[in-house]
Amino acid sequence: MSTTGTWKLTLNSPIGAQAATLTLLESGGSYLGTLAGSGAPSPLEDLKVDGPALSFAADADTPVGRMKLSFTGAIAGDSISGKYRIPFGEFDFSGTRA
Fold first, then answer.
1. How far apart are CA 72 and CA 52, in angstroms?
2. Which of 17, 56, 73, 87 could form a disulfide with 47 if both were Cys (CB 3.0 to 4.6 A apart)?
3. 84 alpha-carbon distance from chain centroid
4. Number of C-alpha atoms within 13 angstroms, CB side, residue 16?
5. Minimal CA–CA distance to 64: which of 92, 96, 83, 89?
6. pLDDT of 71-85, one tens digit each?
7. Three-state SS sequence of the chain
8. In the prediction, which pLDDT does 1 show?
9. Which domains does the chain have, with CATH numbers?
10. Phi, psi for residue 64 in degrees, rounded to 5
């Protein structure tokens, strides 16, 4: 199953569920993408894809200000899930292919 496409994410956080959109593209064997929350999309940094597993980081506008989010997760069919880390903890995220 391809990792590319648009993913609608739900990020569980201390202030409630937050929505985000992850877009992944493949070009010549390399991956790139963006993460968009309440603000403009941010380019993914340190994006690694290994089969169904992926990891990346991105700056994002959040309800408590702009911060770096670091993700690790896996894709299973049309679902994605894992953990994301922010400066004050690690939390679950999940999503589906849009």
1. 11
2. 56
3. 8
4. 2
5. 89
6. 999 999 999 999 999
7. CCCCEEEEEEECCCCCCEEEEEEEEEECCEEEEEEECCCCCEECEEEEEECCEEEEEEEEEECCEEEEEEEEEEEECCEEEEEEEECCEEEEEEEEEC
8. 55
9. 5-97 (2.40.128.20)
10. -110, 15
Separation of alpha carbons 97 and 8, rounded Å: 6
Residues 66 and 52: their CA atoms lie apart, in Å, by 29
DSSP 17-43: -EEEEEEEEEETTEEEEEEESSSS-EE
One-letter identity of residue 16: G
Beta-bridge partners for 71: 56, 84
**Residue for token pair 């201390």:** 14
What's at 93, amino acid-wise?
A: F
Q: What distance in Å separates the CA atoms of residue 82 and residue 42, rounded to the nearest whole number?
A: 20
The amino acid at residue 45 is: E
Token pair of 48, please?
A: 């690694």
Model confidence over 4-20: pLDDT tens digits? 999 999 999 888 999 99
